Amino acid sequence: MNFETDGKIMKHSARFVFRIAALLATGLYAGRATRADINGLEGSDFRLTASAGTIVMPDGLSVHVWGFGPTDGNMQYPGPTLITTQGQLTQITLLNELPEPTSMVFPGMVNVVADGGVGTQQGLLALEALPGGTVSYSFTPRQPGTYLYYSGTRPDVQVEMGLLGALIVRPMDFDPLAPRAYQDNETAYDQEYLFLLSEMDPRIHEVVLRLGSAGLDGLDYLTDHQPQYWFINGRVGPDTFLPNNVPWLKHQPYGAMARTHPGERMLMRVVGGGRDVHPFHHHGNHARVIAKNGRLGTSASYEVFTIQTAPGETIDAIWTWTGQRLGWDAYGHAPGDPLEPGEYAPDHGKPIPVNLTELQDLAFGGFYSGDPFLGSLKSLPPGEGGLNQNGGFHFMWHSHTEKELVNNDIAPGGMMTMCIVEPHGVPID
Amino acid sequence: MKTPKRIAAFAILLATASASSSFAQTDVFLVAKEFTQTMPDGVQIVMWGYALDADGDLLTDDGEAASSPGPQIVVPPGEALLRIHIRNDLPADTSLIIPGQTTTLSPVMFTDASGRERVSSFTTVVAPGATATYTWNDVRNGSFMYQSGTHVAVQIQMGLFGSMTKEFEPGRAYRQPTPFHVGEASVFYSEIDPDLHAAVAGGTYGTPAYPNTLDYRPRYFLVNGEPFSAGVADISLGAVGESSLVRFFNAGLETHVPTALGMDMLIVAEDGNLLPTNRSSYSVFLPAGKTKDVLIQPEMPGRHALVDRSMALSNNNGPDGGMLVFLSADIPQELSEAQNKLDTWSKRVFKAKAKLTIAFAMPEATPAEQRAKARAVETWRSRLETARSRLSRAMNRLVQMQEDLDS
Fold it and tell me: For residue B133, which of B8, B13, B28, B12 has the smallest C-alpha distance?
């Protein structure tokens, strides 16, 4: 089979699949925005409960976790992503069902007012809720952006235990149909994803489960910290690939698989939730950093291929994929074919510069669609593939500290997920 | 809290006999010596630090107490020359370098057991008991650390570091557009691995007991030379609305992320270099050896926690310690004076009212009594009127100031 013939078959196949997908999109998903929104609680009056639970890791280990959760829902790791609006008085009421005092701090927010009566005490960093007590915090976010909240009570122990979450502040003039991260057109986006990075040293969780925080006195676990698990949005790879709210991960509701279409602007909200620096490496293209710690920097934006997340800091970046610099037509078009939306026009119709190999000469990964072109599915040997329903391109996004790609020393896992560039017409939600 | 002594290193103007030209020079006299520091849990740590030589001649040990960080060296704006004269009272060779300031360095080499030529000091050493002078002829403005240049992995860890700063002009740290600042503070981060200090003090460093700093496991985390514990003094930022320059230094071997709760900082410089764009931030990413300068303009009076988000928040793994300090902002003096006035006049109104009530109740049986009563009523009525009018003026002034502050 020479390339020409193969290319033509491919082309027809690609267009056929695209049409089907487009049909599905327009028929089944008519009127529905093909946009991913960050999963979380929206509003300005949040009711949370801090409580304990167990998460089960892919290697089989159970880890005792403390987390925030909606008062009418499960404890979760990380806590609910709180989505509020710039200039809106925001109140968080926290009920403490943990065996120890806890609290919340909101770096980047000024004039945070804490309120609480019986069942509270003034801690070192914040007003704390005693076990069974309730405390509330209110503030008015002045600037939009990505922030995080976490426990202000022995944060070296309690953030490790899981008491943290993301806080997203929408700009005052937020338009869900034309969303912008900040009041600046360079922060407009089509897709939006959270990547909250954190790590856990299970020894600490074991001690706290049996003896409480006081059990750590006299041990060196806090100063000789040895994490074994590295998380994105509270899940380790490969659980990161799973959708939001799968029933068997009831304390880890947030997925971390990013999906977008060619040419779309994806807003990456990257949060350093743990105590270590995690260089978040996004394959596929560079990203343009537009803000840090919730402060817009579009006038001094810059491109990176690894987003450095420092502990407690956040970075917002825009990532786009068009196929530029591939040097060949990612769709397998003939020169006379129409352009796809978001396609990199200068490479339109350029052939793939390799001879495509026969199936029997290939080894397969689960994400191979049977065809190298975007949106094209081809038959694979029985039992192969199956994880790429739309013929999308998969890019691994992961910590560039490669030792963090394990679950308790078993690879692959850890701080790793996928970004899928789906053909236009494939619904994303 | 032990605040490092701040010395405006004194400049001596020397006019040559024949010429009208003059030049300024800056001389600092330091002694490097051992001292013992007690941690909040009672553990005693042998430290190495610097002391200012009391009589500036380095000839005799005048019993000066060394500290870590060492004395702050402040080169006046416009000065190009810095000379640090040092006497080494430590049991090992040492030297002085200032990363970021140019000078000629003469590295000291040695040949190790495997025949490899290696560097033991970045520049000429001063032997135990000896004195030496280190000179910088072209000191640039900014925030820098002076530190040992000899066996740096060990000696800086032992405490041999301090700040060297120079303003662009009085009250302004860097050239325009850097604004002028009113207050100024330094925040130094460092760590202590007690096993390393014990090994150096006991002469077992470099043996299998503690082979090298690959085994470094700090258990105390210090801000300005002290781990947090109850009673550690706040860092004062002056009054609300005033701009303070806060210089951050990391003399530790690990990365720290000072995070201010409820307060924004404007990061203006890094490693003594003015940044091209100012960025507001609640935290400062501070890797080992880094200096960063921020401007803080507190909006609210009170205490704001500055907490290390890389979670070095324990003292030997015990709770509520480590790299935590509070930044405090006062009510502006004008405002507090206005408030005092309000208090004063409201007390006087109260007093005049009471006196007037008493006056009204005075007997008026005889003409003398009637006159006395009329005088008293007249007096206190007039004083009440005055007090009331002053109170209302004080009130208006306070409201106006509050509005100005809010806007």
Answer: B28
